[in-house]
Amino acid sequence: MAACSVEELLAKAEAQEAETLKSISVQKELDLEFDIGNLLACDKNRIEPRDLREKSKEDFLRALARDNTQLLVNEIWKQPTERVEEAIVAKLPEPSTRLPREKLPPKPRPPTKWEQFAKLKGIKKKKKTNLVWDETAKEWKRRWGYKRAGDDTKEWLIEVPESADPNEDQFAKRVKAKKERVAKNELNRLKNIARSQKVKIPAVTLTPKASQSKDELARAESVAKTSTASLGRFQDRLPKENPAKKGKKRKFEPLIGNFSNEKQKQLELLKVMDTKKPKLDITKAVNKQMRQEDREEAAAKHKKAAGKKGRKGGSMGGKARGKGGKGKAAGGGGGKRRGKPGKR
């Protein structure tokens, strides 16, 4: 093994360190174009062919990517910075390059009914802490949810109101009321999602509200009766109940049967698909022609009747004008007769 001097070892170590820890300053003939908002850097410098011949393609591309990334990082740290939870972050400006998208950007979520009401009344949301002090347990508990503070369903003693039935289970009543509130909140949440997605909600079941209309009750009753295995055939009817509407039953061809009919249907279908001219429905064409002729005949009759009515009105007007002429002449004669006594 050949002996190595200390100077050679130090030079070799410095070369390795310089190769692993490269300088942050990179020299380029043309400056890169940066879009810091999109973390984008465009390099317009020319690639020399001899650089590709001297190094392998992978080493050349790796070195080029490293230099351009270093320039992009240098440009990022020129932006204003701030400290967020023991970390220094840079404030990026608005992007200037418009990037293509496959789909449209997501639309903002429409406000819920409560948000619309709060905006109308000027109600501002106040942030509350998640933990509150529970006087009964003498400890901090969650404000909402599981093991929350002041949970009335966990009380071991409940006072029975004077107006309530003394034999009624107040614990079961509270649990039932809580389940109804949870179900109502879940229904409202699903309605908000459906309204934001513009999905029509089928009004089949009864929604929790103060009063139900007659149509809603009838629809719910019909759905409940026809949901049985016999489709409501053996269900008792009310005195004035209308029979439930039944849809048409679909008919299917038998799986095992006459294959010649199936073959004939398939051949007819292929023949229709193969023909370039559309198939002419003679019955439909004749009916269409007959309806067109009936409309033309009705329009002609209407036009003829309107013409007769106009001519009749014109003749009556002529007679009235004639009578008026005679009256005028008689009036003129009367004027002459009135003039005769004056001469006398």
UniProtKB/TrEMBL annotation:
Residue segments, region Disordered: 208-260, 285-344
Cellular location(s): Nucleus
A Gene Ontology term for the protein's cellular component: nucleolus
Coiled coil listed as a keyword: no
Signal peptide (from-to): none
Superkingdom: Eukaryota
Keywords noted in UniProt: Nucleus, Ribosome biogenesis
Annotated organism of origin: Pundamilia nyererei
InterPro entries for the chain: Ribosom_reg
Organism ancestry: Eukaryota, Metazoa, Chordata, Craniata, Vertebrata
Compositional bias per record (Basic and acidic residues), positions renumbered to this chain: 234-244, 290-300
Major site of localization recorded for this protein: nucleus
Protein task: Involved in ribosomal large subunit assembly.
Similarity field: Belongs to the RRS1 family.
One BP term from GO: ribosomal large subunit biogenesis
Name used for this protein in its record: Ribosome biogenesis regulatory protein
Composition-biased stretches (Basic residues): 301-312, 335-344
